[in-house]
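Quick one: co-fold with zinc ion.
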Amino acid sequence: MSKFSLFLSIFLAGSLLVHAQSDNGVLRMDEFRSSKKRDNIIIPDVGGYHTLKCDFHMHTMFSDGLVWPTVRVQEAWQEGLDVMAITDHIEYQPHSKDVIVNHNRPWELAKDMAAENNIIFIKGTEITRATPPGHFNALFIGDASGYVEEREDNSKDKEAISKAVEQDAFIFWNHPGWKVSQIEGSYEWVDFVDELYKERSVHGIEVFNGFGFHKKALDWCVDHNLTVMGTTDVHNVIGYDYNLGEIVHRTMTLVFAKERTEESVREALEAGRTVAWASKYIAGKEEHVENLFNACVEVSPAFHSKNDRRYFEVTNNSDLYFEMNLKEGDGTAGIVLFPRSKQVITAGADQQNLTYEVGNAFIRSDKNLIVDIPLK
Ligand code: ZN
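Sure, here it is.
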């Protein structure tokens, strides 16, 4: 190749590249997609319902977050979410000298990109009252303007929530154990929440917020039939807060929905069909945690026997993690089922089943899921 033709081909290649990058926004998004890998989080459907991966609590520059709304969509796409909500604070706007306050703007800026990437994007906001009672997320809202803007005056708490109630929002209480060490009595079933509960104006509670496990919230959800939620409440770039690896993924709510639609997500949230997932932990109402476990884990018929013991293979067909400790029966004392992995257990020749406690699956603050493994 002559020096001239080498120059020409470099020049041509360079100009093609410039041309591709200077085209419209759709092409830029296509390039983003082709250069990034979207995670495919494997969690089987449960009992005829679609298992949707959802994060209903995140922030942008439009309140105290550090990223633009469209970046939240890119992160959600890359991490395999089905459903997301941006929930910027109404009453807390620390960037207001740099970003014009407009509570509807995050939704407007990100909704097209979410639609183009097959992400169900729910309009939401965070009602940010002084603690207690603290913060509440409202999902499926209409206009986000016209809410109470003043934060510290607890006498306006009811008025602040009532705007979301008027909009028929799905409302959940955020991180109830937040500031537990600073404000005595804050981590309780406070009167204000009790009043909302009696009026059916609060519908769920965050059991996981980021890496925080609010254990009392799980008991409150079970005892009051409220929906168990798990969210990131992410403020920074997601990859900075979460070292996304095999076990550490972004915190989320698994929603068991009839269809992969916004209406079905809402129906499932109202019916309480959720399990919250953070790090290696899952938490939820017993029925849902149990169904989820059974959908993920299967046990083979005995594949070997020796010295009066039978051998079985246990398969985890999911990205969840299970830590199983024997409670009853003559069998292997404990196994860890890593995501998408197999393990071997052995049992006495006459053993019909083995009972295990799943140490990382919570159905109350002090109670783990108990499973019976039938042996064939
Ligand atoms: Zn928040």
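If it helps, The mean pLDDT is 91.
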